[in-house]
Specification:
Radius of gyration: 15 Å
Order of helices and strands: EEHHEHEHEHHE
Largest sheet: 6 strands, mixed
Number of strands: 6
Number of helices: 6
Length: 177
């Protein structure tokens, strides 16, 4: 069954985490609805880093029961090599998506740095865009609630300890590069 993928990042010390959430088509609308119920009045997005601890617990517990899976692509970097590490993680993620016959990839926009992702995507797909159904785009997280899952899971994984345990139920794999 084709899936849709949603990617966000988290950086902790010298660890770069690219978190990719896979959502089956039948779960797109129900998952978006559930995530939107978690918004506070007047809020336009969930951003885990900005939340207070009790609310983080509530959010990750609700996210962890969604019928989605995530994969963490883990790289090590310095401040200077962060972009290079991201692109290595992204290349591997796209290769994995092609093997799963994914239909759509949405990346959390990083504004002017999106150009680096586009170059990696074009290089990785090569001749394959016409041979696959995979389309991709960058969106702001206020426009796509499913990006919030990757944000939350990536944050929890990076924090380790009890936070990682709370998210482990939807983490399908961790791939170190």
């Amino acid at each position: 069954m084709p899936v849709h993928a949603f990617i966000d990042e988290s950086v902790r010390d010298q660890r770069y985490l690219l978190c990719m959430t896979l959502v089956p088509p039948a779960q797109l609308a129900p998952s978006r609805r559930e995530l939107n119920t978690l918004l506070l009045s007047g809020a336009r997005e969930l951003h885990f880093k900005k939340e207070k601890e009790p609310r983080r617990k509530l959010l990750i517990d609700r996210i962890a029961v969604l019928k989605v899976t995530t994969t963490i692509y883990l790289g090590y970097c310095t401040r200077k090599s962060e972009e290079e590490t991201r692109q290595k993680c992204l290349e591997r993620a796209v290769t994995d998506l092609l093997a799963k016959n994914a239909h759509r990839l949405v990346l959390d926009s990083r504004d002017h740095r999106d150009i680096h992702d586009r170059k990696t995507l074009q290089r990785t797909l090569g001749y394959r865009p016409s041979k696959t159904e995979l389309t991709y785009e960058h969106l702001n997280s206020t426009a796509e609630p499913l990006l919030w899952i990757s944000d939350a899971v990536g944050w929890c994984f990076g924090a380790g300890g009890n936070w990682r345990r709370r998210a482990i139920g939807i983490i399908e794999s961790v791939i170190e590069l």
